[in-house]
Amino acid sequence: MTTHDNVVCTFCGCLCDDIEVEVRDNTITAVKKACAIGKNKIMHATSDPPPISVRGVETSVDEAVEEAVRIMSTARNPMVYGMSSTTSEAQREMVEIAEITGANLDNCSSYCHGPGVLARQQVGLVSCSLGEAKNRADLVIYWGCNPVEAHMRHLSRYSLQPKGLFMPEGRKGRKVVAIDVRPTPTTKRADVFLQVQPGHTFEIASVLRALLNGVELDFPDGADSVAGVPVEAWREVVEMVKKCKYGVLFFGLGVTQCRNTDINVEQVARLVQDANRHTRFSAVAMRGHGNVNGTNQVMSWLTGYPLAVNFSRGFPRHNPGEFSVVPMLARKEIDAALIVATDPGAHLPKDAVDFLKTIPVIHLDPHRNMTTPWATVVIPVAPVGVAATGTFYRMDNVPLRLKKLVDSPFPTDEEVLKTMKEKIAYAANN
Amino acid sequence: MGSISGLLVTVRTAKQGSEMVTSKHGAPYLAEISTLRIHPDDLSAVGVEDGGPAVLASPHGEVRVTCKGTDVPKGLFFLPLGPVANTLFSAWSTEESGVPNWKRINVSLTPCDETAEADNTGQGAER
């Protein structure tokens, strides 16, 4: 039996890097320190792979790759999409395939935290590492997120309970505010819970900015509440912000997917900037999939844009709402799709999935999922962080190197994509 | 007793995340993503017992859900992200943002027959 220490869990953006995994005869037999989701993910990492297939007929990897190359080489307006749960090395290959084929290139963040990424490009974001939050934060705000259920060890490792260099008392030294539309296990851990009406993120950020900047509020109709919460409560939050030594705001999809999407996050980012006139204050997006942040990083390095890129003119053009995956599928504008490390059958609206079922779809994933039953070409791959190495970006933009713990009978995403890229480039040049 | 309207908000749950990484074709995953959290008063208004079935409908589709009375605001319904919830959304309704209205779509909830056949897993079916 071999015990691997400091293994990185690849489920969510926390990328907890202290996991212990026991391996016996190339099989994972125990997982320690991980959360319930991370433990299940690692224990089932190599189970239930789909058969290698082309149009439902089992075949070899080589023949599946040949068919995938044929599809991508002959498509007039293909899409390359996904990437959120694979390595940045594989993501780089996907960007190159998209460029060679003149494809539309998008990642899962375009319908999750993408609005926040766009906002950061517009107004910037004062941010910090999770280590700084652990060591310094005496005020923590959770806004539109529920880490107790979605990022299970976030509170214990980074933001709420841990004792840090300047936080020797851990939880006792911290004030915690939660803003959400409903009570959650996270809001129950907060000192102050502000239950707001849905769809009012922009107004909340605006009133907080106004109060922070000393603007006198005027409610001509006599109302004295914003998003269903009395202004006095918002005033108390602002006083907590002014008095803290180091505050961190963690925001989730409740902010980015709220009405107005990126405009909300712009206003939240400006709120954080304003808070820095009084104290030290940062914000961190609660990224979901393990390396969805890496897709934004890699696409930004290589194309200049974090999502929704079109290569049809030979150079990258960027327009969310036009070149991002959901509207492209709504307009039925693509005629083939290369989808890696995501499961559109489970994650996209039904009419988008119904259209995908009518065009050739190449799908790379370690597991049988809601897309593999109907994808044209299915190539199972080695699960990253368990049977493949590579780089993942944590939610605070810190890159971590993944370990290989067991051997897999399947190639890695990176290997398959590199082979596809070389064959597509050869076909394009001959 | 009868149909009621409200705003559907999709959410993550611990069980949904845990079962999703175990198997998306497993019964626990399908049961969790079909479980609707609503206020007990709304449950009474629609005439469904805690744990009973109902049909949740939007302008884009309808699904059968299992209702669970929970401490949530009246008029707001919460369903875990997944292929069941996604039946109720359209790729057209992104308001040019590229983001479907996963936190804000108007839906109606209607009681249904206990023995009615559920058709919530169509997205994973072969074409």
Walk me through what this model shows:
Chain A: One of its GO terms (cellular component) is membrane. Chain A: One of its GO terms (molecular function) is NADH dehydrogenase activity. Chain A: This is Putative formate dehydrogenase. Chain A: It comes from Pseudodesulfovibrio hydrargyri. The complex is a heterodimer of chains A (430) and B (127). Chain A is α/β, with parallel strands linked by helices. Chain A folds into 2 domains: 49-109 and 290-391 and 404-429, 3-Layer(aba) Sandwich (Rossmann fold), CATH 3.40.50.740; 113-285, Dimethylsulfoxide Reductase, domain 2. Helices cover 35% and strands 20% of the residues of chain A. Chain A has 16 helices and 21 strands. In chain A, the strands form 5 sheets. Chain A has a 9-stranded mixed beta sheet with strand order 5-4-19-18-17-6-7-15-16, with helices on one face. A 5-stranded parallel beta sheet of chain A has the order 10-9-8-13-14, with helices on both faces. A 3-stranded antiparallel beta sheet of chain A has the order 1-2-3. In chain A, α4 packs across α11 (262-275). Chain A starts with a strand and ends with a helix. With 127 residues, chain B is an alpha/beta fold. Chain B has a single domain (4-111), classed as Barwin-like endoglucanases (Beta Barrel). Chain B has a 6-stranded mixed beta sheet. In chain B, β3 (53-58) and β4 (61-69) form a beta hairpin. Chain B starts with a strand and ends in a 16-residue tail after the last strand. The mean pLDDT of chain B is 90. At the A-B interface, α1, α6, α10, α13 and α14 of A face β1 and α1 of B.
